[in-house]
Amino acid sequence: MTKVEYKDTEIAVKKKLGQNFLTDRNITRKIVIASGAGPRENILEIGPGFGALTKEIMTCNPIFTVVEKDPKLAEFIRTEYPQLNLLEGDFLDTDLESLATEQPLRILGNIPYSITTPILFKLLEQRRSFLSATLMMQHEVAMRIVAKPSTKDYGILAVQIQSFCHIDYLFKVGRKVFRPQPGVDSAVIRMTPKQNDPVYDAQGFRRFVRTAFHQRRKTLLNNLKESYNLELVESHTLKLRAEALSIDDFFQLFVQLKPLQ
């Protein structure tokens, strides 16, 4: 079992929580600068761990909220940084809307590899609660988020997130700056929710995108015909695969569809 020790606190690294702790202050400084976090903002950090990013955030804002699931790490943060608002629990169960009642959040975090996608979709669902989310994640996942049409990485994740957020790929982070060292590199991205939702039915749009990509090798016609009335859609569009459509193409196609009862 891998163990990590910091300031007399030793924890057994929990693989199921995707724990890899950042050790390079140059990286944490770059993350905070890129986030745009300022002294009067409502900041939320996801998974502070041993506080590498936490300490850097405090240089611009000494009081903010952190969410930590690991009880031993939560106790470490409670002792080391008593002035912070510590929420001990799972970020996926955290009500962002209640935290953003008075002011929208500025979110930062080195998010666990094991639950990156659920975290991203939670942020997408509660995007009205934050100004931006600057996140470090597995490089492969970051590339899937920023992917362009007609590439192997372009799929549900890219379309869903790019449809409702502006995405900036900021920089790559090598695996050597973590304890324990993961088997892959990381990257930092920034998600900024679009001010106006591009579609009237965001949940319906997300279902449509999942259906369009249901079987990547099949055409839109084959993926959509069991769920939608396609009479108003041009035949040449239906001969394409979902990966060929741009974000705007998806919006236009969604407007033309009517779900089958």
Briefly, what is this?
The chain has 261 residues and is an alpha/beta fold. The chain is built from 11 helices and 13 strands. The strands form 4 sheets. A 7-stranded mixed β-sheet has the order 6-5-4-7-8-11-9, with helices on both faces. A two-stranded antiparallel ribbon has the order 1-2.
Walk me through the structure:
- There is one protein chain.
- 33% of the residues lie in helices and 23% in strands.
- By secondary structure, it is of the alpha/beta class.
- The chain folds into two domains: 3-193, Rossmann fold, CATH 3.40.50.150; 202-259, rRNA adenine dimethylase, C-terminal domain (Helicase, Ruva Protein, domain 3, Orthogonal Bundle), CATH 1.10.8.100.
- The strands form four sheets. It has a seven-stranded mixed β-sheet with strand order 6-5-4-7-8-11-9, sandwiched between helices. Strands 1-2 form a two-stranded antiparallel sheet.
- α5 runs parallel beside α7.
- The chain is elongated, with a radius of gyration of 20 Å.
- The chain starts with a strand and ends with a strand.
